[in-house]
Design brief:
Layout: H1 7-36, H2 39-59, H3 63-70, H4 78-107, H5 117-142, H6 146-169, H7 175-205, H8 216-245, H9 247-280, H10 285-316, H11 320-353, H12 357-381, H13 384-403, H14 405-408
Helix pairs in contact: 1-6, 1-9, 2-4, 2-5, 3-5, 3-9, 4-5, 5-7, 6-7, 8-9, 8-12, 9-10, 9-11, 10-11, 11-12, 11-13, 12-13
Length: 417
């Protein structure tokens, strides 16, 4: 993926590189964990970390996207805006983590080791810290430092792998969890030093726009509400597959989904760059959106052709049975990423214009259609039904967006660059 001189495309490319690198090193981390630690430790640790990520994801209130939208035009309020979002998301995530600990005896008794004071406090602190970690990406993206998004994620991944090995050498049962906590602390310290001491002051000095903060709480609430439905669409389908088809079919689905979801991330990363540039130059929103649409379609078109052609070989890396059961599913998921480009750009354009009706409506419709069609098709088609559900949903959403594009693809009234 060559880097363009255009900030809109260059920043989007770097964000996509960050996502790909994080996914690749994350896979390496878990491969090493399964070799260095007992299966029981890996299973319990994965459950704890999954819950931590879920709580942090809910607790950060989608303020990551909020920062992407409002920091570019915050002017001298930039530092205060970032720190306020940090505090709010960390506080809410900590409360959510503490609430989960209270429910552990009832909902997850196998995790009762979290109830000891020291481990429980670490769980709460790490959950709050991860919420801030997620928002660092948004803040760095907003101040046009996507290179540091790549750097911080590489730093986190590499330190995490190093600490994982140290924990294995010392035979620590908490080695997997400790590696996450340690790497998180290092990343937060280094990244926020760069962000708050260097990137933010430079951003403030170079600011040419200053947007009125009127209505930001309403924006944040509506954006968070919509994001919950998108999150539900992404996270609940694997649970539906597990419930209806069992653990084995769920495994086949999950690995195909992990590969296919990478294609969705490309559109999301370029969309974040679109929001940043549109916030800086509102009058160029339509121009930027069309450029992102053309570029992402060309970029993903080539990637989708490769995935469709090489789907059996890709899945066979995990085992022959994954290729046998998941090839058609992966091909359908890859194809669904193409109409998703239009859906993603419509959502991000809505965010840039601060008119969230389209964004919320699309995410609600996505959730209802994906979950409904998945439940309907799984008993008939097996895990392939989930792929059909995603492809059908994206086509059903993209078609009216294409027909009535002038309703959502419009410049911000009364504003110019």
């Amino acid at each position: 993926m060559l880097l363009s001189k255009d900030p809109l495309l260059r920043n989007g490319h770097l964000l996509a590189v960050s996502s790909l690198a994080s996914a690749g090193l994350g896979a390496v981390f878990w491969v090493l964990a399964t070799r260095w630690y007992d299966d029981e430790i890996v299973g319990v640790s994965y459950s704890v970390l999954s819950m931590m990520l879920l709580l942090a994801g809910v607790g950060q209130l989608n303020l990551n996207d909020f920062l992407v939208r409002f920091v570019p035009s915050a002017g001298h309020h930039t530092r205060r805006l970032i720190l306020t979002c940090y505090a709010v998301s960390a506080g809410v995530s900590a409360v959510a983590a503490f609430g989960f600990l209270l429910l552990v005896p009832m909902v997850a008794p196998e995790l009762d080791f979290l109830l000891t004071p020291v481990i429980g406090a670490c769980f709460v602190a790490t959950t709050a810290g991860y919420a801030v970690f997620v928002m660092q990406d948004g803040a760095l993206t907003a101040v046009r430092r996507p290179g540091w998004v790549v750097a911080e994620n590489l730093l986190f991944a590499c330190v995490k792998i190093g600490l994982l090995g140290l924990g294995a050498v010392l035979a620590l049962r908490s080695g997997i969890l400790s590696s996450w906590a340690g790497a998180l602390a290092v990343s937060l310290l280094v990244t926020n030093f760069v962000l708050l001491r260097r990137a933010v002051p430079q951003h403030v000095r170079g600011s040419t726009v200053a947007e009125r903060p009127k209505g930001v709480l309403g924006y944040a609430s509506a954006d968070y509400f919509g994001s919950l439905f998108r999150m539900a669409a992404y996270t609940l389908v694997p649970l539906i597959v597990l419930d209806q088809l069992g653990a084995e079919q769920s495994a086949y689905f999950s690995l195909a989904w992990i590969v296919g979801y990478v294609l969705y991330l490309v559109a999301r990363n370029l969309g974040s760059s679109l929001v940043v540039e549109a916030a800086r130059s509102p009058g160029r929103l339509v121009e930027h959106a069309l450029k992102v649409l053309r570029h992402t379609t060309l970029l993903l078109g080539s990637a989708v052709l490769l995935v469709v052609a090489l789907a059996p070989q890709i899945l066979s890396l995990f085992g022959a049975e994954y290729a046998e059961h998941g090839t058609t599913l992966l091909r359908l998921l890859a194809l669904s990423s193409l109409p998703n480009i239009l859906v993603s750009i419509a959502i991000d354009s809505s965010r840039a214009r601060r008119r969230l009706r389209w964004a919320v409506g699309l995410q609600v419709a996505m959730c209802v259609l994906v979950l409904g069609l998945t439940r309907l098709l799984l008993p008939v088609m097996g895990i392939t039904g989930a792929g059909v559900a995603w492809l059908a949903t994206m086509c059903l959403l993209a078609a009216p967006l294409l027909i009535w594009r002038t309703r959502w693809l419009t410049a911000v009234p009364g504003r110019s660059s």
